[in-house]
Amino acid sequence: MMRFLYEHLGWKILAVLLAVALWFLVVGDPGLTASVSAPLEFRNIPLDLEINSETPEHIHLQIQGPSGQLQPSALASVAVVLDLGGVHRAGERTFFVDQSAVALPPGVQLVRAVPAQLRLRFEQRARREVPVQVRYSGSPPAGYRVLRQEVNPPAVRIAGPESRVNSVAAAETDPIDLGAVVGEGEFRVHTFIADSHVRFESSPEVVVRVVMEKVAAGARQR
Predict the structure, then answer these.
(1) Cα separation, 212 vs 152, whole angstroms
(2) Is 189 helix (H, G, I), strand (E, B) or coil?
(3) Structural domain harbouring 169
(4) 146 and 74, same structural domain?
(5) Each residue of 53-73: pLDDT tens digit?
(6) Of 115, 148, 170, which residue is a domain's last?
């Protein structure tokens, strides 16, 4: 028995010292604090509801824990995750950023969050098609004007909070330069919705065909 205890004694002592050092590294200095900017994420978003309020992209967290757990590599995956599973109807709901909403490394505690609470406004999800509005840049070549334009598809499908979707009159194309078009021109361009809460459900890309005509002497260009 004694022989077993003293066998490889040096290695055993080294292992004990390493275990003690590791213990101090993980739980031996709980008073250290650090700050981290954590991305805001949502879980269990209701299928028929949309968030119609401004939300921060990041939450500032003040945390406390052992130095080994406060290294950038250990905090790289820290995020604030709000569970929306309890939201079942439109209206306002307040959520608190507490320890349960933040996934932190073992031994690390949340001291405070800024902001500490978020009030979210939920609306019914709406979908509709809106027409495409063509935008031009510059002027046609001298002596020419736009005879007609064709857009394919002529409308795009959008989705988002009901009030915001209903307020969108049209999706605008990127500007099309007519400066070198004297006959026909075809342009593949993207459309744009100014409201960031509204998104495309169909492709935002359209094809615009422009037909120019020569202006008779004395006629007015358009």
Answers:
(1) 18
(2) strand
(3) 125-214
(4) no
(5) 999 999 999 999 998 888 888
(6) 115
